[in-house]
Amino acid sequence: LANFIAAEDQLRRRGIRLLLPQRAQLRRRDKDRLPALCADAGVATPAVRRLADERFFDHCEADGWNFPLVIKSVFYDAWIVHSAPEARQRYRQIAAAWGYPVLVQKYVHGDEVNLTALGDGSGAMIGEVMIRKQAVTDKGKAWAGVAIDDPELQEAGRRLFDTLKWRGPLELEMLRDAAGTLQLIEINPRFPAWIFLSHGVGRNLPAALLALMNGARPEQLDLAPPRPGTGFIRHAQETIVSLDEIATLTASGSTLRPCAPASLAA
């Protein structure tokens, strides 16, 4: 994303329109900068620390960092760890895959809720859609979820969009802890994988993004009130293909399959 931000003016001169944040805005939502951002926005977030030495885990509990903890990179990947040996293992794994620094974040137990919306660069939050995750993968990605109406989550989103002055799509990942407090876990500078649900609840955010890039004003967008209770479930589908088609897919990234005549054979 940083490369597209740097090239935005050149792309615009070529007729390619984008709706992107400024580089400073992108950096401000980095995982290791969330505490400072949340302090400005008045939103809770768990403590996070940058690490360059795995020996931190040998004494972390004496310093108030009690297990379980979350180990993550500044880019991608996160693991919940329950002991110093497990933490060191995941630390090495993340450092090998993503480099340094490695981040450690205090673990928050609670129900995960997400919000996605568009920002216009002035601080407004446009077309927010909120979900509660019902099932997740081992990476914490939503496999099933349901749209919700959560005024507290909506207000937290408004504060963060206003503080960031975000421009473009954004996703907020939050947990509601045992005390009922919403804690910001991550901010992703993109639409989430479950963005198709925005169409399902009457707020097609990708279409709204295209409209904004084409010069529409926020008040001109056709965004219906979202429909809480609308859910989504992902599924895997098996497809029968030949070895030639697999080779074509590997080489070109796509495969063209001729339409075969219908058959009544079982």
SSE topology sketch:
Layout: H1 2-6, H2 8-13, H3 23-28, H4 34-41, E1 48-51, H5 56-59, E2 69-73, E3 78-81, H6 84-98, E4 102-106, E5 111-120, E6 125-136, E7 142-147, H7 151-164, E8 167-176, E9 182-188, H8 196-200, H9 205-213, E10 231-233, H10 243-252
Antiparallel strand pairs: 1-4, 2-3, 2-4, 5-6, 5-8, 6-7, 7-10, 8-9
Helix pairs in contact: 4-7
Strand content: 15-25%
- Spatial strand arrangement across the major sheet: 9-8-5-6-7-10
Q: Could you say which structural class the secondary elements and strand pairing correspond to?
A: alpha+beta
Helix fraction by DSSP (H/I, runs of at least 4) = 25-40%
Measured distance between first and last alpha carbons: 49 Å
Tell me, briefly, the overall form.
globular
Radius of gyration: 21 Å
Order of helices and strands: HHHHEHEEHEEEEHEEHHEH
Low-confidence stretches: 262-266
- Overall residue-averaged pLDDT value: 89
Number of strands: 10
How many H/I helices? 10
Largest sheet composition? 6 strands, antiparallel
